[in-house]
Structure formats: C-alpha cells, structure tokens
Amino acid sequence: MALTLDSVSKLFTIEVFEEAVRRALEADGRPAGLKVVGHSVELGADKGTGYLGVVYRIRVQLSDGSELSLIAKGMPENVVRRKTFRCDYYFEKEVRFFTQVAPLFREFELKQRGVEKVAVDTFMPIARCYHAVSDGENDFLVFQDLKTLGYEMTDRVSGPTVAQRRGLLHTLARFHALSYGLLRLEPEKFTSAAKAFPEPWFSQPLAPFYEDYMFKLYNIWRRALQDELQGTDYWRKFLEFGPDAKKLFENMCDSMRHVGPAVINHGDAWSTNFLFGRQDEIMMIDFQIMRHASPMTDVSLFIFSCTTEEQRADAGGVLAILDDYYQVLCRSVKELGLDECPLSWEQLLEQWRVNGRLGFSSALELVLLSVVETEDVQDLDRIDGNEPVPLIDITQFKDVTDPEGRKRLADLTRLAADFGMI
C-alpha cells in the first residue's frame, strides 16, 4: 500500500503540509511564489533504528521544477507497539522540546553569543522543525531533511570514527553549557523548562514497565560474562548488582540521584541519534528521552555505548575523555557569559561515579542493539492486539556468543566496577 500524509498522522492534512513546505522554503531562502505540484511519501529509516516512532521522507515537487525533501516522524500505526513502548509519552517530550525548550535555548544563545557566531557554530545543532503537534494519538513532527545537506547516520554496528566520537563528546558539552548558562543567568526560565523533563526510564514508579525487561537483558549479559569473568571480583560485583529484577531496577534508579547542578540532557546520547556531515560536523536528533539530570548521564551513556576498551585507551583513558569534555564545557559557559563553570571537576568526578551507573545500565540494552544486524531486527508492527504486552514478550535479543562481543561486555563490566558503579 502506498504511503500518504495520513500514514504519518491523521492530523497531517494538506493544509498543514503546505504550511510546513512554506516555512521550509522561507528558511531556505527560496523565491516567493513557489507552489507544490506533487509529493510522495516513503520510509526514511531502516528497521531497527527506533522503537518509539516511524520516520518518513517526503519528496515535494515544486512549480519551478525543483524538489524539496522533508522528514516526518509519526507514531507507530500498530496499537500494541504504541502502548507497550509508551510512545505517546515520548512523543510529547520531543514536541515539548522543539516547541518550548529549543526556542528558549536558541533565544538565550543568540543573546549571549550573537547572531554571527550562532549562525556558523551553534551550541545546539539541530534540524529546523516546521511543525510539531501532540495529542496523545496523532503526534507528529516535520523537520528539515539533513540528508540533503550531506549528513548521514554512522553504522550502528561499527560505530563512529575517532573524530566523530570526539565531536560527539564536544557537542554534548556545548549543549549542556546552555543549561548551565540559563541556570545561572535566568534561573526561573531554566527551572520551568527542566520541570518538563522528569526521568523517563529509571524511576521507581516505572518498574512495572521496565523491571523484568531490564532483568532479561541483564541475564543475557550474565551468560556472556560467565566464561570471561567467573571467579573474579568483577563477576561478584556484577552478580550483586542484579540478584533479582527488583534489586536490579532499584540499583539502576539510584543512578539518577542529583550530585551537583543538573542540566537538560539529550537523554539518548548514543551514536544513532547523531548525524555526521562530510567534515564530521554533527547534528543532534531524536529528543524523546530527554531528562533533567546530571550531565554525566549523557556522557556515561556515550562512553559505555559508543566506545570500546581499545578506543578509550587510545584516547588516554576515561579520565582523559572526561577532562576533554570538561575543558569544552568550561570554555562554552565562559562564552555564554559566566565567570566560572557551575560544575567543578570534583563534582564531575562524583557525578561520573554515581550517575555513570546510568551509562552501564543503558548499555545493557544499547550494546546488545549495536551488535544486531538489521536483518535480525524484529518487525514489531506484525504484533496483533489492542492492549500493551510485557516488553520481554516482544523484544528479542540473541545471546552474545562471538568472542569479540563477549570481550566488549566484559570490558564494560570491568569499567563500571573499577569506578565503583557496580
């Protein structure tokens, strides 16, 4: 069946579509008076790039013979998938980011850094959003198509290059600096914005949704680690971290304790949520798991999910990576008008120890996803029904049997244990 605007959302009417096109043409500086003479809708992302939404590419034919490409992101059509993954909750967060927080951050950055600097080197590199609406049933967003500017997603399995990893870390530091700038200079605005992003995953009231699921992933790791670590102190600490589903999730929730000043985090800072340009320029995408938390929740998720032991060693070790992040953060907050960084190096290290546990907890899922080839990803839209089902029933992960994969899991477990996270 051919895809249409209605495939994205019932609220994506021709009037909304034409208004989004008008805004895109205006932002691009195209000549006034161009008309839409046709359009087509196709899927815009491979299976396995996200559970929470469906990405579409809309090709628009214009009256002067040129073409415009837009990206739309809509709710999954499958009811079971929507309800099981709480898609309405996550879409509402992303719509709130693009309609409320992103404009606030942009206004603050323009005021503090000036139009010229922001135009060529913004602290918040994101796609333009031309429409965003959330009603819990028909949520969708329409964006600039970054692919037309040369941006691509890095391979999920092989991961980012050295330059891309460093650029990603610096992007997080500069994005976090916007929060710290607002926190110090316009605290009421920051506090109001931060309230919109409570913890979306590792919170005790959410245990019914995620507790058994995370324990299932933990046990896949346990089987993979048995030959690698059994009989060592690392094995003991790993077993103590998750003796049962309840205790495992409690330990994961403990990673969200605030240590020092918190920021508005990207929330899902692994490599598939960043697009890379031809010169390794970076754009941040997918803001559905935003949280108000320690910046080390973002940084630890990146380190645990996007680096190997060898890559960390080549970068000088974890402390060198953290120092690289911190130096960029300090320079960025200074450029925003602060005399000193609200986060001290000592606080950062304590955040890394306490909140870095989130990185390890998230890696239980993300690292398993990173080793799944696209053709092995389950088609979640084939599940019949109208009610949510347990996550463990519809997400399938194979045991990690290859030596390289097992080594990676063991290395990450040692990393968590060495810093007292488990």
Automatic annotation (TrEMBL):
Pfam families: EcKL (PF02958)
The CHK kinase-like domain, residue ranges: 141-335
Signal peptide start and end residues: none
InterPro entries to which the protein is assigned, alphabetical: CHK_kinase-like, EcKL, Kinase-like_dom_sf
Superkingdom as given in the UniProt entry: Eukaryota
Protein name in UniProt: CHK kinase-like domain-containing protein
Provenance organism: Cloeon dipterum
